Amino acid sequence: MTTQTERPKPVIRLGDRVFARSTLIAGSLILVALAAVAIFLIVEAIPALGADTTELKGSPSNFWTYVGPLAFGTVWAAFLALLIAVPLAVGIALFISHYAPRRLAQGLAYVIDLLAAVPSVVFGLWGIKVLAPAVQPVYAWLTDNLGWIPIFSGPVSGTGRTILTVAIVLAVMILPIITAMAREVFLQTPKLHEEAALALGATRWEMVKMAVLPFGRSGLVSASILGLGRALGETMAVAMVLSPSTVISFVLLQSENPNTIASNIALNFPEAHGTGVNVLIATGLILFVITFAVNFIARAIVARRKEFSGAN
Amino acid sequence: MSKRIEVRDLNVYYSKFRAVEGVSLTIEPRSITAFIGPSGCGKSTFLRTLNRMHEVIPGARVEGEVLIDGDDLYGPGVDPVLVRRQVGMVFQRPNPFPTMSIKENVLAGVKLNNRRISKSDADDLVEKSLRGANLWNEVKDRLDRPGSGLSGGQQQRLCIARAIAVSPDILLMDEPCSALDPISTLAIEDLMEELKKEYTIVIVTHNMQQASRVSDKTAFFNIAGTGQPGKLIEYDDTNTIFTQPNVQATEDYVSGRFG
Protein backbone atom coordinates (compact mmCIF):
# COMPACT_ATOMS: atom_id res chain seq x y z
CA MET A 1 0.00 0.00 0.00
CA THR A 2 1.16 3.48 -0.73
CA THR A 3 1.24 6.01 2.05
CA GLN A 4 -1.57 8.52 1.99
CA THR A 5 -1.35 12.22 2.69
CA GLU A 6 -1.23 13.04 6.38
CA ARG A 7 -4.81 14.19 6.64
CA PRO A 8 -6.97 12.12 4.34
CA LYS A 9 -9.70 14.25 2.82
CA PRO A 10 -13.13 12.95 3.68
CA VAL A 11 -14.80 11.60 0.58
CA ILE A 12 -17.90 13.58 -0.32
CA ARG A 13 -19.98 11.91 -2.95
CA LEU A 14 -21.86 13.95 -5.54
CA GLY A 15 -25.23 12.65 -4.41
CA ASP A 16 -24.57 13.70 -0.82
CA ARG A 17 -23.48 17.15 -1.92
CA VAL A 18 -26.56 17.68 -4.14
CA PHE A 19 -28.84 16.47 -1.39
CA ALA A 20 -27.20 18.62 1.28
CA ARG A 21 -27.42 21.70 -0.92
CA SER A 22 -31.05 21.16 -1.87
CA THR A 23 -32.13 20.69 1.75
CA LEU A 24 -30.22 23.83 2.66
CA ILE A 25 -31.96 25.78 -0.09
CA ALA A 26 -35.36 24.43 0.89
CA GLY A 27 -34.71 25.33 4.51
CA SER A 28 -33.57 28.84 3.63
CA LEU A 29 -36.51 29.47 1.33
CA ILE A 30 -39.00 29.19 4.17
CA LEU A 31 -37.06 31.74 6.19
CA VAL A 32 -36.81 34.10 3.22
CA ALA A 33 -40.54 33.80 2.56
CA LEU A 34 -41.35 34.47 6.21
CA ALA A 35 -39.02 37.47 6.30
CA ALA A 36 -40.46 38.85 3.07
CA VAL A 37 -43.99 38.67 4.43
CA ALA A 38 -42.98 40.23 7.74
CA ILE A 39 -41.11 43.06 6.03
CA PHE A 40 -44.00 43.74 3.69
CA LEU A 41 -46.46 43.84 6.58
CA ILE A 42 -44.30 46.11 8.72
CA VAL A 43 -43.40 48.56 5.94
CA GLU A 44 -46.99 48.87 4.79
CA ALA A 45 -48.35 49.04 8.32
CA ILE A 46 -46.20 51.91 9.58
CA PRO A 47 -48.20 54.70 7.86
CA ALA A 48 -51.39 53.32 9.41
CA LEU A 49 -50.26 53.68 13.00
CA GLY A 50 -50.47 57.48 13.04
CA ALA A 51 -53.08 57.81 10.31
CA ASP A 52 -56.36 59.61 10.62
CA THR A 53 -58.88 56.79 10.89
CA THR A 54 -62.07 58.78 11.28
CA GLU A 55 -63.15 57.98 7.74
CA LEU A 56 -63.09 54.22 8.50
CA LYS A 57 -66.22 52.33 9.45
CA GLY A 58 -67.21 53.13 13.04
CA SER A 59 -65.02 56.28 13.07
CA PRO A 60 -62.43 54.99 15.52
CA SER A 61 -60.24 57.62 17.17
CA ASN A 62 -56.99 55.86 16.24
CA PHE A 63 -55.67 52.63 14.81
CA TRP A 64 -55.66 50.74 18.12
CA THR A 65 -59.32 51.34 18.84
CA TYR A 66 -59.98 50.14 15.31
CA VAL A 67 -58.02 46.93 15.56
CA GLY A 68 -59.01 46.13 19.15
CA PRO A 69 -62.48 44.72 18.49
CA LEU A 70 -61.20 42.87 15.44
CA ALA A 71 -58.35 41.24 17.34
CA PHE A 72 -60.76 40.32 20.10
CA GLY A 73 -63.26 38.86 17.63
CA THR A 74 -60.54 36.84 15.94
CA VAL A 75 -59.28 35.29 19.16
CA TRP A 76 -62.77 34.82 20.64
CA ALA A 77 -64.19 33.06 17.56
CA ALA A 78 -61.13 30.82 17.24
CA PHE A 79 -61.18 30.03 20.95
CA LEU A 80 -64.87 29.06 20.81
CA ALA A 81 -64.22 26.92 17.76
CA LEU A 82 -61.39 25.16 19.56
CA LEU A 83 -63.57 24.66 22.62
CA ILE A 84 -66.10 22.85 20.45
CA ALA A 85 -63.71 21.01 18.17
CA VAL A 86 -61.04 19.62 20.51
CA PRO A 87 -63.22 17.46 22.78
CA LEU A 88 -65.08 16.20 19.74
CA ALA A 89 -61.86 15.46 17.87
CA VAL A 90 -60.34 13.65 20.84
CA GLY A 91 -63.49 11.57 21.18
CA ILE A 92 -63.57 10.66 17.50
CA ALA A 93 -59.85 9.93 17.43
CA LEU A 94 -60.08 7.68 20.49
CA PHE A 95 -63.06 5.89 19.02
CA ILE A 96 -61.17 5.27 15.79
CA SER A 97 -57.91 4.27 17.45
CA HIS A 98 -59.08 2.26 20.46
CA TYR A 99 -62.75 1.41 20.40
CA ALA A 100 -64.19 0.93 16.92
CA PRO A 101 -63.92 -2.36 15.05
CA ARG A 102 -61.18 -2.02 12.45
CA ARG A 103 -63.41 -1.83 9.38
CA LEU A 104 -65.67 0.85 10.85
CA ALA A 105 -62.63 2.78 12.06
CA GLN A 106 -61.13 2.92 8.59
CA GLY A 107 -64.39 4.12 7.05
CA LEU A 108 -64.85 6.76 9.68
CA ALA A 109 -61.28 8.02 9.35
CA TYR A 110 -61.84 8.34 5.61
CA VAL A 111 -65.02 10.36 6.07
CA ILE A 112 -63.28 12.71 8.49
CA ASP A 113 -60.48 13.25 5.99
CA LEU A 114 -63.07 14.03 3.32
CA LEU A 115 -64.38 16.82 5.53
CA ALA A 116 -60.96 18.47 5.20
CA ALA A 117 -61.37 18.57 1.43
CA VAL A 118 -64.50 20.75 1.52
CA PRO A 119 -63.61 24.32 0.40
CA SER A 120 -64.22 26.99 3.01
CA VAL A 121 -66.61 28.88 0.74
CA VAL A 122 -68.86 25.83 0.80
CA PHE A 123 -68.74 25.81 4.57
CA GLY A 124 -69.71 29.48 4.42
CA LEU A 125 -72.72 28.77 2.24
CA TRP A 126 -73.73 25.90 4.49
CA GLY A 127 -73.39 28.22 7.49
CA ILE A 128 -75.73 30.82 6.00
CA LYS A 129 -78.25 28.57 4.32
CA VAL A 130 -78.49 25.63 6.68
CA LEU A 131 -76.82 26.14 10.02
CA ALA A 132 -77.90 29.71 10.87
CA PRO A 133 -81.64 29.13 10.29
CA ALA A 134 -81.43 25.78 12.03
CA VAL A 135 -79.77 27.06 15.20
CA GLN A 136 -81.78 30.31 15.46
CA PRO A 137 -84.70 28.67 17.36
CA VAL A 138 -82.18 27.02 19.68
CA TYR A 139 -80.59 30.41 20.30
CA ALA A 140 -84.02 31.89 21.04
CA TRP A 141 -84.68 29.11 23.52
CA LEU A 142 -81.28 29.66 25.14
CA THR A 143 -81.82 33.39 25.62
CA ASP A 144 -85.32 32.75 27.01
CA ASN A 145 -84.28 30.08 29.46
CA LEU A 146 -80.60 30.58 30.15
CA GLY A 147 -80.48 34.32 29.51
CA TRP A 148 -79.34 34.90 33.10
CA ILE A 149 -75.96 33.46 32.09
CA PRO A 150 -74.20 36.57 30.72
CA ILE A 151 -72.91 35.00 27.49
CA PHE A 152 -76.43 33.83 26.57
CA SER A 153 -78.16 37.15 27.29
CA GLY A 154 -80.60 38.61 24.77
CA PRO A 155 -81.94 40.06 22.61
CA VAL A 156 -81.44 37.09 20.36
CA SER A 157 -80.27 37.55 16.78
CA GLY A 158 -83.11 37.08 14.31
CA THR A 159 -80.91 35.60 11.63
CA GLY A 160 -78.79 33.24 13.71
CA ARG A 161 -75.69 34.68 12.06
CA THR A 162 -73.83 35.21 15.34
CA ILE A 163 -70.33 34.58 16.59
CA LEU A 164 -71.44 31.21 17.96
CA THR A 165 -72.64 30.10 14.54
CA VAL A 166 -69.29 31.18 13.13
CA ALA A 167 -67.54 29.22 15.85
CA ILE A 168 -69.56 26.12 14.99
CA VAL A 169 -68.67 26.45 11.30
CA LEU A 170 -65.01 26.97 12.21
CA ALA A 171 -65.14 23.99 14.54
CA VAL A 172 -66.39 21.78 11.73
CA MET A 173 -63.61 23.10 9.50
CA ILE A 174 -60.78 22.42 11.96
CA LEU A 175 -62.20 19.11 13.17
CA PRO A 176 -60.57 16.97 10.45
CA ILE A 177 -57.02 18.20 11.00
CA ILE A 178 -57.21 17.85 14.77
CA THR A 179 -58.87 14.45 14.54
CA ALA A 180 -56.38 13.13 12.01
CA MET A 181 -53.39 14.22 14.08
CA ALA A 182 -54.87 13.04 17.36
CA ARG A 183 -55.62 9.65 15.81
CA GLU A 184 -52.05 9.27 14.60
CA VAL A 185 -50.67 10.19 18.00
CA PHE A 186 -53.02 7.83 19.84
CA LEU A 187 -52.16 4.98 17.50
CA GLN A 188 -48.49 5.47 18.31
CA THR A 189 -48.99 4.84 22.02
CA PRO A 190 -46.52 2.05 22.78
CA LYS A 191 -48.23 -1.32 23.27
CA LEU A 192 -45.98 -1.72 26.32
CA HIS A 193 -47.59 1.19 28.12
CA GLU A 194 -51.09 0.07 27.27
CA GLU A 195 -50.33 -3.42 28.52
CA ALA A 196 -48.74 -2.01 31.67
CA ALA A 197 -51.98 -0.24 32.47
CA LEU A 198 -54.16 -3.24 31.61
CA ALA A 199 -52.00 -5.58 33.66
CA LEU A 200 -52.51 -3.35 36.69
CA GLY A 201 -56.23 -3.94 36.33
CA ALA A 202 -57.20 -0.85 34.38
CA THR A 203 -60.45 -0.84 32.46
CA ARG A 204 -60.31 0.28 28.85
CA TRP A 205 -61.11 3.86 29.78
CA GLU A 206 -58.59 3.85 32.63
CA MET A 207 -55.99 2.51 30.23
CA VAL A 208 -56.74 5.39 27.87
CA LYS A 209 -56.45 7.84 30.75
CA MET A 210 -53.22 6.33 32.09
CA ALA A 211 -51.32 5.51 28.95
CA VAL A 212 -52.87 6.93 25.78
CA LEU A 213 -53.84 10.47 26.72
CA PRO A 214 -50.65 11.36 28.64
CA PHE A 215 -48.56 9.96 25.82
CA GLY A 216 -50.55 11.91 23.24
CA ARG A 217 -50.66 15.12 25.23
CA SER A 218 -48.01 17.09 23.39
CA GLY A 219 -49.23 15.84 20.03
CA LEU A 220 -52.70 16.91 21.00
CA VAL A 221 -51.49 20.39 21.86
CA SER A 222 -49.76 20.61 18.49
CA ALA A 223 -52.89 19.42 16.72
CA SER A 224 -55.01 21.97 18.56
CA ILE A 225 -52.62 24.77 17.68
CA LEU A 226 -52.69 23.77 14.05
CA GLY A 227 -56.47 23.89 14.21
CA LEU A 228 -56.38 27.18 16.09
CA GLY A 229 -54.08 28.63 13.44
CA ARG A 230 -56.54 27.73 10.75
CA ALA A 231 -59.46 29.13 12.76
CA LEU A 232 -57.60 32.39 13.42
CA GLY A 233 -56.85 32.92 9.76
CA GLU A 234 -60.09 31.63 8.26
CA THR A 235 -61.58 34.34 6.09
CA MET A 236 -64.29 33.23 3.70
CA ALA A 237 -66.58 31.30 6.01
CA VAL A 238 -66.50 34.03 8.65
CA ALA A 239 -67.03 36.83 6.15
CA MET A 240 -70.06 35.02 4.75
CA VAL A 241 -71.72 33.87 7.94
CA LEU A 242 -71.14 36.68 10.42
CA SER A 243 -73.13 39.88 10.55
CA PRO A 244 -70.38 42.05 12.00
CA SER A 245 -70.21 45.24 13.97
CA THR A 246 -67.43 46.94 15.92
CA VAL A 247 -67.89 45.78 19.48
CA ILE A 248 -65.95 43.89 22.09
CA SER A 249 -68.51 41.53 23.52
CA PHE A 250 -68.48 38.01 24.91
CA VAL A 251 -72.18 37.62 24.22
CA LEU A 252 -72.79 34.71 21.87
CA LEU A 253 -76.32 35.06 20.58
CA GLN A 254 -76.97 38.73 19.85
CA SER A 255 -76.89 40.43 16.46
CA GLU A 256 -73.97 42.67 17.52
CA ASN A 257 -70.87 40.55 16.99
CA PRO A 258 -67.18 41.41 16.82
CA ASN A 259 -65.71 40.74 13.40
CA THR A 260 -62.44 38.91 12.81
CA ILE A 261 -59.35 40.49 11.30
CA ALA A 262 -59.19 38.24 8.27
CA SER A 263 -62.86 38.59 7.48
CA ASN A 264 -62.70 42.34 7.96
CA ILE A 265 -59.83 42.62 5.48
CA ALA A 266 -61.72 40.56 2.93
CA LEU A 267 -64.89 42.61 3.33
CA ASN A 268 -63.23 46.07 3.21
CA PHE A 269 -60.19 45.67 0.99
CA PRO A 270 -62.02 46.05 -2.38
CA GLU A 271 -63.23 49.56 -1.43
CA ALA A 272 -60.22 50.66 0.55
CA HIS A 273 -57.96 53.50 -0.71
CA GLY A 274 -55.14 55.65 0.60
CA THR A 275 -54.23 55.01 4.21
CA GLY A 276 -57.27 52.73 4.47
CA VAL A 277 -55.21 50.10 2.68
CA ASN A 278 -52.36 50.60 5.14
CA VAL A 279 -54.74 50.25 8.07
CA LEU A 280 -56.05 46.95 6.74
CA ILE A 281 -52.52 45.67 6.17
CA ALA A 282 -51.63 46.78 9.70
CA THR A 283 -54.50 44.67 11.03
CA GLY A 284 -52.97 41.83 9.04
CA LEU A 285 -49.73 42.42 10.90
CA ILE A 286 -51.62 42.18 14.17
CA LEU A 287 -53.09 38.85 13.05
CA PHE A 288 -49.59 37.68 12.19
CA VAL A 289 -48.40 38.62 15.66
CA ILE A 290 -51.37 36.92 17.34
CA THR A 291 -50.82 33.68 15.42
CA PHE A 292 -47.12 33.80 16.21
CA ALA A 293 -47.80 34.35 19.90
CA VAL A 294 -50.28 31.47 20.02
CA ASN A 295 -47.75 29.13 18.46
CA PHE A 296 -45.09 30.32 20.85
CA ILE A 297 -47.27 29.72 23.89
CA ALA A 298 -48.19 26.26 22.66
CA ARG A 299 -44.54 25.31 22.21
CA ALA A 300 -43.80 26.58 25.70
CA ILE A 301 -46.59 24.41 27.10
CA VAL A 302 -45.25 21.33 25.34
CA ALA A 303 -41.67 22.04 26.39
CA ARG A 304 -42.56 22.58 30.03
CA ARG A 305 -43.12 18.89 30.73
CA LYS A 306 -40.63 17.58 28.23
CA GLU A 307 -38.98 15.24 30.72
CA PHE A 308 -42.27 13.46 31.23
CA SER A 309 -43.16 13.29 27.56
CA GLY A 310 -41.91 9.79 26.98
CA ALA A 311 -39.46 11.02 24.38
CA ASN A 312 -36.50 10.09 26.55
CA MET B 1 -51.60 -13.33 49.67
CA SER B 2 -49.96 -16.06 47.67
CA LYS B 3 -52.39 -18.48 46.11
CA ARG B 4 -52.23 -21.86 44.39
CA ILE B 5 -52.74 -22.01 40.63
CA GLU B 6 -54.33 -25.10 39.12
CA VAL B 7 -54.57 -25.38 35.35
CA ARG B 8 -56.73 -28.12 33.87
CA ASP B 9 -56.48 -29.12 30.22
CA LEU B 10 -56.01 -25.61 28.91
CA ASN B 11 -56.06 -24.84 25.18
CA VAL B 12 -55.31 -21.37 23.85
CA TYR B 13 -56.47 -20.21 20.44
CA TYR B 14 -55.71 -17.20 18.30
CA SER B 15 -58.88 -17.21 16.19
CA LYS B 16 -58.64 -20.63 14.46
CA PHE B 17 -55.02 -21.30 15.31
CA ARG B 18 -54.37 -23.42 18.37
CA ALA B 19 -51.28 -21.91 20.04
CA VAL B 20 -51.16 -24.04 23.20
CA GLU B 21 -52.64 -27.49 23.64
CA GLY B 22 -53.75 -29.41 26.67
CA VAL B 23 -51.72 -27.89 29.49
CA SER B 24 -52.41 -29.17 33.01
CA LEU B 25 -50.24 -28.24 35.97
CA THR B 26 -50.41 -27.07 39.56
CA ILE B 27 -48.29 -24.22 40.88
CA GLU B 28 -47.80 -24.09 44.63
CA PRO B 29 -47.99 -20.85 46.62
CA ARG B 30 -44.75 -19.24 47.84
CA SER B 31 -42.70 -20.81 45.10
CA ILE B 32 -41.02 -19.76 41.91
CA THR B 33 -41.97 -21.68 38.82
CA ALA B 34 -40.01 -21.20 35.59
CA PHE B 35 -41.37 -21.81 32.10
CA ILE B 36 -38.64 -22.66 29.62
CA GLY B 37 -38.66 -23.73 26.00
CA PRO B 38 -37.69 -22.61 22.51
CA SER B 39 -39.16 -19.47 20.92
CA GLY B 40 -42.75 -19.77 19.80
CA CYS B 41 -43.50 -22.75 22.05
CA GLY B 42 -46.38 -20.93 23.70
CA LYS B 43 -44.87 -20.30 27.13
CA SER B 44 -45.52 -16.56 27.07
CA THR B 45 -48.97 -17.10 25.63
CA PHE B 46 -49.70 -19.59 28.39
CA LEU B 47 -48.37 -17.18 31.04
CA ARG B 48 -50.70 -14.48 29.76
CA THR B 49 -53.72 -16.74 30.16
CA LEU B 50 -53.00 -16.77 33.91
CA ASN B 51 -54.17 -13.17 34.19
CA ARG B 52 -56.24 -13.02 31.00
CA MET B 53 -53.81 -10.59 29.35
CA HIS B 54 -54.02 -12.68 26.16
CA GLU B 55 -57.48 -11.21 25.67
CA VAL B 56 -55.83 -7.92 24.67
CA ILE B 57 -55.15 -9.58 21.31
CA PRO B 58 -58.35 -9.74 19.25
CA GLY B 59 -59.51 -13.29 18.60
CA ALA B 60 -57.57 -14.87 21.46
CA ARG B 61 -59.56 -17.30 23.62
CA VAL B 62 -59.06 -20.29 25.86
CA GLU B 63 -60.72 -23.61 26.61
CA GLY B 64 -60.21 -25.31 29.93
CA GLU B 65 -59.91 -24.11 33.49
CA VAL B 66 -57.51 -21.97 35.46
CA LEU B 67 -58.26 -22.13 39.17
CA ILE B 68 -56.74 -19.65 41.62
CA ASP B 69 -57.30 -21.19 45.05
CA GLY B 70 -60.26 -22.99 43.53
CA ASP B 71 -61.90 -20.02 41.80
CA ASP B 72 -62.12 -20.36 38.03
CA LEU B 73 -60.56 -17.35 36.27
CA TYR B 74 -62.74 -18.06 33.26
CA GLY B 75 -65.96 -18.69 35.15
CA PRO B 76 -69.09 -16.85 34.08
CA GLY B 77 -69.23 -13.28 35.32
CA VAL B 78 -65.53 -13.08 36.18
CA ASP B 79 -64.25 -9.64 35.20
CA PRO B 80 -60.79 -9.77 33.60
CA VAL B 81 -60.09 -6.34 35.10
CA LEU B 82 -60.50 -7.76 38.61
CA VAL B 83 -58.43 -10.82 37.73
CA ARG B 84 -55.54 -8.58 36.72
CA ARG B 85 -55.74 -6.73 40.01
CA GLN B 86 -55.02 -10.03 41.79
CA VAL B 87 -52.48 -11.38 39.35
CA GLY B 88 -49.75 -8.85 38.71
CA MET B 89 -47.49 -8.89 35.69
CA VAL B 90 -43.98 -7.70 34.83
CA PHE B 91 -43.07 -7.49 31.17
CA GLN B 92 -40.09 -8.30 29.02
CA ARG B 93 -39.12 -4.68 28.54
CA PRO B 94 -39.37 -2.26 31.47
CA ASN B 95 -42.48 -0.17 30.92
CA PRO B 96 -42.88 2.53 33.56
CA PHE B 97 -45.36 5.19 32.48
CA PRO B 98 -43.14 7.88 30.96
CA THR B 99 -45.53 10.68 31.83
CA MET B 100 -45.50 9.82 35.53
CA SER B 101 -42.93 10.37 38.25
CA ILE B 102 -41.40 7.44 40.11
CA LYS B 103 -43.90 7.90 42.90
CA GLU B 104 -46.87 8.18 40.58
CA ASN B 105 -45.73 5.02 38.83
CA VAL B 106 -45.73 3.06 42.08
CA LEU B 107 -49.18 4.38 42.95
CA ALA B 108 -50.66 3.91 39.47
CA GLY B 109 -52.32 0.58 40.23
CA VAL B 110 -53.41 1.60 43.72
CA LYS B 111 -55.20 4.63 42.37
CA LEU B 112 -57.22 2.35 40.10
CA ASN B 113 -58.19 0.01 42.92
CA ASN B 114 -58.85 2.56 45.58
CA ARG B 115 -59.16 6.11 44.38
CA ARG B 116 -58.92 7.80 47.75
CA ILE B 117 -55.68 7.28 49.57
CA SER B 118 -54.39 9.74 52.12
CA LYS B 119 -51.05 11.36 51.47
CA SER B 120 -49.29 9.70 54.38
CA ASP B 121 -50.70 6.27 53.43
CA ALA B 122 -49.53 6.87 49.88
CA ASP B 123 -46.04 7.83 51.05
CA ASP B 124 -45.86 4.76 53.25
CA LEU B 125 -46.99 2.52 50.43
CA VAL B 126 -44.46 4.03 48.02
CA GLU B 127 -41.66 3.41 50.48
CA LYS B 128 -42.82 -0.10 51.30
CA SER B 129 -43.20 -1.07 47.65
CA LEU B 130 -39.89 0.45 46.59
CA ARG B 131 -38.15 -1.24 49.52
CA GLY B 132 -39.86 -4.45 48.49
CA ALA B 133 -38.38 -4.02 45.04
CA ASN B 134 -34.92 -3.17 46.43
CA LEU B 135 -35.08 0.23 44.81
CA TRP B 136 -35.80 2.57 47.72
CA ASN B 137 -32.22 3.55 48.50
CA GLU B 138 -31.48 4.38 44.89
CA VAL B 139 -34.50 6.62 44.26
CA LYS B 140 -35.63 7.97 47.64
CA ASP B 141 -34.21 11.41 46.85
CA ARG B 142 -35.86 11.73 43.46
CA LEU B 143 -39.34 10.32 43.81
CA ASP B 144 -40.77 13.20 41.80
CA ARG B 145 -38.45 12.67 38.85
CA PRO B 146 -39.72 10.83 35.79
CA GLY B 147 -39.51 7.05 35.96
CA SER B 148 -38.09 6.94 32.46
CA GLY B 149 -34.90 8.62 33.71
CA LEU B 150 -33.79 5.48 35.57
CA SER B 151 -31.51 2.79 34.17
CA GLY B 152 -33.07 -0.27 32.58
CA GLY B 153 -32.62 -2.45 35.64
CA GLN B 154 -33.98 0.25 37.93
CA GLN B 155 -36.95 0.73 35.63
CA GLN B 156 -37.68 -2.99 35.77
CA ARG B 157 -37.53 -2.92 39.57
CA LEU B 158 -39.83 0.10 39.48
CA CYS B 159 -42.27 -1.99 37.45
CA ILE B 160 -42.00 -4.73 40.07
CA ALA B 161 -42.66 -2.15 42.80
CA ARG B 162 -45.69 -0.97 40.83
CA ALA B 163 -46.95 -4.53 40.53
CA ILE B 164 -46.52 -5.41 44.22
CA ALA B 165 -47.97 -2.09 45.41
CA VAL B 166 -51.47 -3.44 44.76
CA SER B 167 -50.65 -6.57 46.86
CA PRO B 168 -51.49 -9.18 44.26
CA ASP B 169 -51.72 -12.89 45.05
CA ILE B 170 -49.57 -13.94 42.15
CA LEU B 171 -46.77 -12.28 40.21
CA LEU B 172 -46.21 -13.23 36.58
CA MET B 173 -42.91 -12.29 34.96
CA ASP B 174 -42.50 -12.51 31.21
CA GLU B 175 -38.74 -12.68 30.56
CA PRO B 176 -38.13 -9.87 33.05
CA CYS B 177 -34.36 -9.84 32.58
CA SER B 178 -33.97 -10.35 28.85
CA ALA B 179 -33.44 -6.62 28.25
CA LEU B 180 -31.08 -6.16 31.20
CA ASP B 181 -27.35 -6.39 31.83
CA PRO B 182 -25.93 -9.14 34.11
CA ILE B 183 -25.67 -6.91 37.21
CA SER B 184 -29.28 -5.79 36.92
CA THR B 185 -30.31 -9.37 36.22
CA LEU B 186 -28.67 -10.47 39.42
CA ALA B 187 -30.48 -7.72 41.33
CA ILE B 188 -33.82 -8.92 39.95
CA GLU B 189 -33.02 -12.55 40.74
CA ASP B 190 -32.13 -11.68 44.33
CA LEU B 191 -35.36 -9.75 44.54
CA MET B 192 -37.34 -12.75 43.34
CA GLU B 193 -35.91 -14.82 46.18
CA GLU B 194 -37.26 -12.18 48.58
CA LEU B 195 -40.64 -11.87 46.87
CA LYS B 196 -41.11 -15.63 46.98
CA LYS B 197 -41.85 -15.39 50.70
CA GLU B 198 -45.06 -13.55 49.94
CA TYR B 199 -46.08 -14.27 46.40
CA THR B 200 -46.59 -17.10 43.98
CA ILE B 201 -44.14 -16.27 41.22
CA VAL B 202 -44.23 -17.56 37.69
CA ILE B 203 -41.42 -16.58 35.36
CA VAL B 204 -40.90 -17.16 31.67
CA THR B 205 -37.24 -17.19 30.73
CA HIS B 206 -35.04 -17.97 27.78
CA ASN B 207 -32.09 -18.22 30.07
CA MET B 208 -31.75 -21.75 31.38
CA GLN B 209 -29.12 -20.79 33.95
CA GLN B 210 -31.60 -18.31 35.31
CA ALA B 211 -34.30 -20.96 35.55
CA SER B 212 -31.96 -23.31 37.37
CA ARG B 213 -30.77 -20.52 39.71
CA VAL B 214 -34.07 -19.08 40.82
CA SER B 215 -36.88 -21.57 40.37
CA ASP B 216 -38.23 -24.36 42.54
CA LYS B 217 -40.08 -26.04 39.73
CA THR B 218 -39.59 -25.87 36.00
CA ALA B 219 -42.00 -26.50 33.16
CA PHE B 220 -40.55 -27.31 29.74
CA PHE B 221 -42.70 -26.39 26.74
CA ASN B 222 -41.99 -27.49 23.21
CA ILE B 223 -43.45 -27.29 19.76
CA ALA B 224 -43.50 -30.06 17.17
CA GLY B 225 -43.02 -27.66 14.25
CA THR B 226 -44.23 -24.36 12.85
CA GLY B 227 -48.01 -24.15 12.82
CA GLN B 228 -48.22 -26.83 15.52
CA PRO B 229 -49.52 -25.98 18.99
CA GLY B 230 -47.10 -25.67 21.88
CA LYS B 231 -47.34 -28.36 24.54
CA LEU B 232 -46.18 -28.86 28.09
CA ILE B 233 -43.59 -31.59 27.78
CA GLU B 234 -42.39 -31.99 31.31
CA TYR B 235 -43.04 -30.33 34.66
CA ASP B 236 -41.01 -31.26 37.70
CA ASP B 237 -38.63 -30.00 40.36
CA THR B 238 -36.05 -27.75 38.78
CA ASN B 239 -33.29 -30.03 39.96
CA THR B 240 -34.85 -33.04 38.29
CA ILE B 241 -35.49 -31.18 35.04
CA PHE B 242 -31.89 -30.09 34.79
CA THR B 243 -30.18 -33.27 35.98
CA GLN B 244 -32.31 -36.28 35.16
CA PRO B 245 -35.34 -35.34 33.04
CA ASN B 246 -37.76 -38.07 32.05
CA VAL B 247 -38.27 -36.95 28.48
CA GLN B 248 -35.54 -37.00 25.86
CA ALA B 249 -36.60 -33.60 24.39
CA THR B 250 -36.19 -31.95 27.78
CA GLU B 251 -32.70 -33.35 28.14
CA ASP B 252 -31.81 -32.21 24.62
CA TYR B 253 -33.06 -28.73 25.38
CA VAL B 254 -31.49 -28.21 28.81
CA SER B 255 -28.19 -29.61 27.60
CA GLY B 256 -28.23 -27.09 24.77
CA ARG B 257 -28.69 -29.48 21.89
CA PHE B 258 -31.48 -27.32 20.39
CA GLY B 259 -33.51 -24.21 21.06
TrEMBL record, chain B:
The keyword Nucleotide-binding applies. SMART domains: AAA (SM00382). CDD domains: ABC_PstB_phosphate_transporter. Residues 5-248 form the ABC transporter domain. The keyword Transport applies. Keywords: ATP-binding, Nucleotide-binding, Translocase, Transport. It comes from the Bacteria. One of its GO terms (molecular function) is phosphate transmembrane transporter activity. GO terms for cellular component: membrane. GO terms for biological process: phosphate ion transmembrane transport. Pfam families: ABC_tran. This is Phosphate ABC transporter ATP-binding protein. It comes from Mycetocola tolaasinivorans.
